[in-house]
Amino acid sequence: MSCSPFDLRDYFLKELPDPEGRQVEAHVRACQPCREELERLRLTENALFSLRDEEIPQRIAFVSDKIFEPSPARRWWNAFWGSGARLGFAAAAILAIAIVVRPVGRVAYLPGPPAQPPATVVQTISDAEIQSRVDAAVTKAVAQVEARQTEQTKQLVADLEDTRKRLLLAAAEYDFSQKRSGTLRASAFSMPAEPEGAVR
Amino acid sequence: MIFRAVEDADLIRQAARGSVEAFNLLVSRWDKRVYNYLLRITRNREDALDLTQDVFLKAYQNLRKLEDVGRFSPWLYRIAHNEAYSMFRKRRPEADVAELEPEATENGITVGGSPVFPMELGLAVASALERLSPDQREAVVLKIYQGFKFEEMSEILGCPVSTVKSRLYTALELLKAELAPIKTRGVS
């Protein structure tokens, strides 16, 4: 058993930090048994190194085959989902979107009372009530249509009346202008009476 | 070494994006080391070569799962370790994992009956390694031949650092008892 302050084998295998290694070196310089033990370890290692690495009998190389290679989009997709960090980011993004969107969607429903199931509504309304509601709706719709038609008729009548007045006015103007032009022609053809005794 | 590590990291990123050329360059840097690791734990060249190919194929398929490119080498050796032990299990499915032993050979690594290490010291080393348990041998290969730190070995082997140290130090005691006297006698 070694009397070294730290394991000589750890020192020999370069697994000791520098400060501890320096302590072992100082100890070995002064301790004959530990120096001999270290020497035996070195001899053993040298013997092991007499086995040389062999050359690999056949070099290994991979051939790129386009048929088996994934498309760039596929590689990106695989790389995206293959990365834990990216997957985490995607999950965080989806969660963030859900947090933002969910309250917005809920605001629209908050003011109103909770909706009753449709089946319950149908069961509580009688046929007579349905019929009265339908009649009322039809009556209202008919009234609206009639009102609209009456309004259109009035407008049409007003337009026709206006047109009639304009035509009458135009006719009156025409008559007036005709009469005036007739008067002028008559005055142009009728010579003024010559005074008696005038010499031609 | 730092510059080389950066280059490896760039190649890993390019290969993860689908660049076969970048991955081939990465393979050319690591295939000899992985092959020799597998050769020393399987002690069979054909198995080591087949497994090396499988290791790099799996590495290419799973490169996108490697989050820290700085941990590429322990990650790669972890694949190699798993592939080797998967092969051992297939060949001896009834055996306990701790008892899995590659096919024993009298003179260490052989191919078609020919010894791989003809020199006397080489034979002595191969014989000494032969007497180790598979776990102990693998610990020696990862530490002495591949130069991994205890933490990395723990990652590759899937066991605590204390277990790694225990296996390695037991192996070193056995090897020291066999090899140090030979080396001292000057046999080489």
Give a written overview of the molecule:
- The complex is a heterodimer of chains A (200) and B (188).
- Chain A has 200 residues and is mainly α.
- Helices cover 70% and strands 0% of the residues of chain A.
- Chain A has helices at 8-12, 18-30, 32-48, 72-82, 84-107, 118-124, 127-189.
- In chain A, helix 2 (18-30) crosses helix 3.
- The longest helix of chain A is centred in the C-terminal third of the chain and has 63 residues, at 127-189.
- With 188 residues, chain B is an all-alpha fold.
- Chain B has two domains: 1-103, Rna Polymerase Sigma Factor, Chain: A (Orthogonal Bundle); 104-188, Arc Repressor Mutant, subunit A (Orthogonal Bundle), CATH 1.10.10.10.
- Chain B has helices at 2-16, 20-42, 45-62, 72-91, 120-130, 134-145, 150-157, 161-184, and strands at 110-111, 114-115.
- In chain B, strands 1-2 form a two-stranded antiparallel sheet.
- In chain B, strand 1 and strand 2 form a beta hairpin.
- Chain B starts with a helix and ends with a helix.
- The model of chain B is unreliable at 104-118 (pLDDT under 50).
- The interface between A and B is large, with 34 and 51 residues.
Summarize the structure.
Chain A is mainly alpha-helical and 200 residues long.
Low-confidence stretches of chain B: 104-118
Rg over alpha carbons of chain B:
17 Å
By secondary-structure content and strand pairing, the structural class of chain A works out as mainly alpha
The shape of chain A, in one word, is: rod-shaped
Question: Mean pLDDT score of chain A, rounded?
Answer: 78
Structural class of chain B: mainly alpha
The largest beta-sheet of chain B arranges its strands as 1-2
**Main sheet specs of chain B:** 2 strands, antiparallel
Query: Measured on Cα atoms, how large is the radius of gyration of chain A?
Result: 58 Å
Strand content of chain B: under 5%
Regions with little confidence, pLDDT below 50 for 5+ residues of chain A: 118-122, 189-200
CATH architecture of the largest domain in chain B: Orthogonal Bundle
Helical content class of chain A:
over 70%
Number of helices of chain B: 8
What is the number of E strands of chain B? 2
Spell out the helices and strands of chain B N to C: HHHHEEHHHH
Number of strands of chain A: 0
